[in-house]
């Protein structure tokens, strides 16, 4: 997960080469655009314009059509995300058990709106549709880690933990 | 390629072992040995279940009992609330909320000494210190597991285990002994209806597609489960992916299709991984691919990932998405069964529907049609959630009452609170009240009451839930998820939401209630697809059954349940306040003032009603009204 920043230079070129590989892999597939966008988002963490330009020329598709698809689906992002992406589940089970209060508290503590990223690039706050862990409601995820049965009270402590740099393994 | 003889030998080899793991089917084979089943569904996996699997493997091997104990990572058992869940067979001991630290103790006490670790045993499975068989526990007693028959019983990443529970037997039977038309007839006579929500008869859908003359046809498994509060499709794919693949192959044979797509949400990584593994294994065994069982019938399946658009659950939108476009619906007709994916006849079935297909063809239409009500056959899986003791996944025969599901299986409302409503069918459904608790659950009854089956979310609400806020919540969802193609849905849901916002802010009028009703009817009548046609249902049903709550918001400017923030006021009760000052320190808007050891006061002008003071007060001196 350490590669989520938008690095320039060599690393970036390598990744753009990967984009070409991905396109080759899916070129013959009917309806290739969405699988290609999924792969690109896997590589960069979001959909950078230069990668989309490659898709446009390689798949012979106007940029307008690509943006049309990319912006339609909530899973795709045109903006880089923070180091930790916090997703608060706003499914019904979580909502009626107080997810809104959890989300509000996060927004307040981080001082960013929902879908915003902190100026230091550390956190992105998202409200998400059902994560399917309704038994643990209300739930949020930070990266891969799931926090269940939350109360707003716990938020400052959790954020503090995430801010504390973890010793390198 | 595997022949039937191969399948049979795999099945008999695994039979006794797997039978032992089924609820209520204790086999005499290998009783001295034990199976440790660890739930690997999303709920449990999110609380360290995978690490617990590893810890068990390590601990069992370090004790040198690995030849006596099998460790199986399974799909969802249903009781997600209690995760991570570990069940040990043949003793049928159910351990709940197991942590990594508990593993060594379970191995030491239970597996080595045969003593239960009482503190971890699920309380409801104990009676006077004795452990009840699991199928007698309230949560399981009234359930009937057909679609979930293998979830929690087999390892979903191991095809041999699926074969051991008669997996791919239906496919073999059908390909070698039945004509496609016989398959269609069997499914039609079983009375299977679409479990994705609409309840359209599956056999009739197949029949239409089978009649089309076309060299290419498709089967699509709709696994784009986007309903908030519903997770049965995900759980089936995570717990028993092969049953869905087998169901797709059977559908393919019935209609004459050679390829299938599973349209699956990218947000469900465990399900994606398990389906990928299942497809790979089925191909290796020759159960997907060319010339299945030497019958000349070929069928293969590929995965297409969704990208977070609720409207893609709508079949025509889903097909547009597979074709690489925005997932927007098309007008029907033509129906997909006539002209679907890339213009070819296409059958789209939901995950749960397909999971029912193999067992119907194996056991026969009569067996299936014997379960359920006259017009709704079989069982339905519900994701039971909200304010109910046992939240989780339950499968019940059609015709069971809401009361049985909520009180018997669900264990009632926690914390001694009163039941207020149950919401079925997610954003397309409606809210039912305590008056309806004894009504039976089937497609037609729910529709007649102003709700619907939907994909099977069942959210229980107690007295602390505001029904106006619930309606607002669903409208916020549908407005956000509307694709925008047709104006009634795009603009109508936005206007509905604005009116609901106004009411929850205490600015509503009685005319607004009429407007809500009128607009709702128009949106239902004029929208292009199911999303818009059902979006007003939560508004209409709450207006019908909970009008008094709307009136309280509009006339009295009060939220009786204490949810709508604009209508709340926080006070400090001077007699209870010890003057600790904690609330004042926590208050983000400096609205609380006072002197230490004297009662504090909230400045109502400055208060932003965030509720932090309410949560932080240790003396319950702060109340809201």
CATH architecture of the largest domain in chain A: 3-Layer(aba) Sandwich
Shape of chain B: globular
Please state how the strands of the largest beta sheet of chain A are arranged side by side: 2-1-3-4
Task: Work out the helicity level of chain B.
Answer: 25-40%
**Total domains of chain A:** 2
* Strand numbers in spatial order across the main sheet of chain B: 12-11-15-13-14
Shape estimate of chain A: elongated
Beta percentage of chain A is 5-15%
Based on helices, strands and strand pairing, what is the structural class of chain B? alpha/beta
Secondary structure: number of strands of chain A:
4
Structure, described:
The complex is a heterodimer of chains A (169) and B (625). Chain A has 169 residues and is α+β, with helices and mostly antiparallel strands. Chain A has helices at 10-26, 33-44, 49-58, 63-72, 92-96, 99-110, 155-163; strands spanning 84-89, 123-128, 140-142, 145-147. Chain A has two domains: 4-72; 84-168, Glutaredoxin (3-Layer(aba) Sandwich). Chain A has a four-stranded mixed beta sheet, with helices on one face. In chain A, a hairpin with a 2-residue loop joins strand 3 (140-142) and strand 4 (145-147). In chain B, the strands form six sheets. In chain B, strands 12-11-15-13-14 form a five-stranded mixed beta sheet. A four-stranded mixed beta sheet of chain B has the order 2-1-3-4, with helices on one face. In chain B, strands 9-8-7-10 form a four-stranded parallel beta sheet, with helices on both faces. In chain B, a hairpin with a 5-residue loop joins strand 11 and strand 12. In chain B, 39% of the residues lie in helices and 14% in strands. Chain B has 25 helices and 19 strands. Classes of the chains: A alpha+beta (169), B alpha/beta (625).
């Amino acid at each position: 997960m350490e590669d989520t920043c938008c690095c320039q230079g060599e690393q970036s070129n390598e990744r753009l080469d990967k984009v070409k590989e991905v396109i080759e892999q899916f070129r013959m597939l009917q309806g290739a655009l969405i699988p290609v966008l999924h792969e690109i988002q896997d590589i960069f963490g979001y959909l950078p314009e230069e990668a989309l330009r490659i898709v446009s020329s390689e798949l012979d598709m106007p940029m307008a059509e690509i943006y049309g698809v990319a912006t339609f689906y909530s899973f795709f992002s045109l903006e880089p995300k923070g180091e930790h992406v916090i997703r608060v589940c706003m499914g019904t089970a979580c909502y009626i058990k107080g997810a809104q209060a959890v989300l509000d508290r996060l927004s307040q503590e981080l001082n960013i709106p929902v879908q915003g990223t902190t100026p230091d690039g550390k956190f992105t706050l998202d409200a998400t549709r059902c994560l399917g862990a309704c038994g643990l409601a209300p739930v949020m995820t930070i990266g891969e880690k799931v926090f269940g049965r939350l109360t707003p009270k716990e938020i400052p402590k959790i954020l503090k933990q995430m801010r504390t740099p973890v010793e390198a393994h | 390629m595997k022949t039937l003889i191969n399948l049979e030998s795999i099945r008999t080899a695994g039979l006794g072992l797997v039978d032992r793991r089924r609820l209520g089917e204790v086999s005499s084979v290998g009783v001295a040995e034990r199976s440790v089943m660890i739930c690997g569904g999303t709920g449990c996996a999110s609380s360290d279940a995978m690490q617990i699997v590893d810890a068990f493997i390590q601990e069992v091997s370090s004790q040198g009992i690995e030849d006596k104990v099998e460790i199986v990572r399974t799909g969802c058992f249903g009781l997600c609330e209690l995760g991570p869940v570990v069940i040990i067979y043949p003793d049928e001991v159910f351990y709940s909320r197991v942590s990594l630290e508990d593993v060594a103790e379970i191995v030491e006490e239970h597996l080595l000494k045969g003593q239960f670790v009482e503190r971890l045993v699920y309380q409801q499975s104990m009676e006077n210190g004795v452990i009840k068989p699991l199928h007698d526990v309230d949560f399981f007693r009234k359930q009937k597991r057909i679609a979930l028959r293998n979830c929690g019983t087999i390892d979903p990443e191991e095809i041999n285990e699926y074969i051991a529970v008669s997996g791919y037997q239906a496919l073999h039977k059908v390909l070698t002994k039945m004509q496609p038309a016989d398959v269609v007839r069997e499914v039609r006579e079983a009375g299977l209806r679409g479990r994705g929500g609409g309840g359209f008869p599956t056999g009739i859908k197949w029949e239409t597609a089978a009649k089309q003359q076309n060299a290419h046809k498709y089967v699509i498994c709709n696994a784009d489960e986007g309903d908030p509060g519903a997770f049965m499709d995900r759980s089936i794919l995570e717990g028993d992916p092969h049953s869905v693949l087998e169901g797709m192959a059977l559908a393919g044979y019935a209609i004459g299709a050679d390829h299938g797509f599973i349209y699956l949400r990218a947000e469900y990584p465990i399900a994606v991984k398990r389906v990928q593994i299942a497809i790979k294994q089925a191909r290796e065994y020759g159960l997907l691919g060319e010339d299945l069982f030497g019958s000349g019938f070929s069928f293969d399946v590929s995965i297409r990932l969704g990208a977070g658009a609720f409207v893609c659950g709508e079949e025509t939108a889903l097909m547009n998405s597979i074709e690489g476009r925005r997932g927007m619906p098309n007008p029907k007709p033509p129906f997909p069964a006539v002209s679907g994916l890339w213009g070819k006849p296409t059958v789209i079935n939901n995950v749960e529907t397909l999971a029912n297909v193999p067992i119907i063809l194996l056991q026969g239409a009569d067996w299936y049609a014997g379960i359920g009500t006259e017009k709704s056959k079989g069982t339905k899986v519900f994701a039971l959630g909200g304010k109910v003791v046992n939240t989780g996944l339950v499968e019940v025969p059609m015709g069971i009452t809401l009361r049985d599901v909520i009180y018997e299986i669900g264990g009632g409302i926690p914390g001694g609170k009163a039941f207020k409503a149950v919401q079925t069918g997610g954003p397309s459904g409606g809210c039912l009240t305590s008056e309806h608790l004894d009504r039976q659950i089937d497609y037609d009854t729910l529709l007649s009451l102003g709700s619907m089956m939907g994909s099977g979310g069942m959210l229980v609400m107690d007295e602390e839930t505001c029904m106006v806020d619930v309606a607002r919540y669903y409208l916020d969802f549908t407005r956000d998820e509307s694709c925008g193609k047709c104006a009634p849905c795009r603009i109508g849901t936005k206007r509905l939401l604005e009116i609901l916002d106004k009411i929850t802010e205490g600015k509503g009028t009685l005319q607004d209630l009429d407007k809500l009703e009128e607009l709702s009817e128009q949106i239902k009548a004029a929208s292009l697809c199911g999303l818009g046609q059902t979006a007003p249902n939560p508004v209409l049903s709450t207006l019908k059954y909970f009008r008094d709550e709307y009136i309280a918001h509009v006339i009295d400017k009060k939220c009786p349940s204490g949810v709508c923030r604009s209508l709340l006021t926080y006070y400090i009760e001077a007699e209870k306040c010890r003057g600790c000052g904690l609330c004042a320190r926590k208050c983000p808007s400096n609205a609380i003032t006072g002197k230490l050891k004297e009662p504090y006061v909230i400045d109502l002008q400055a208060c932003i009603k965030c509720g932090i003071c309410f949560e932080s007060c240790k003396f319950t001196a702060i109340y809201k009204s």
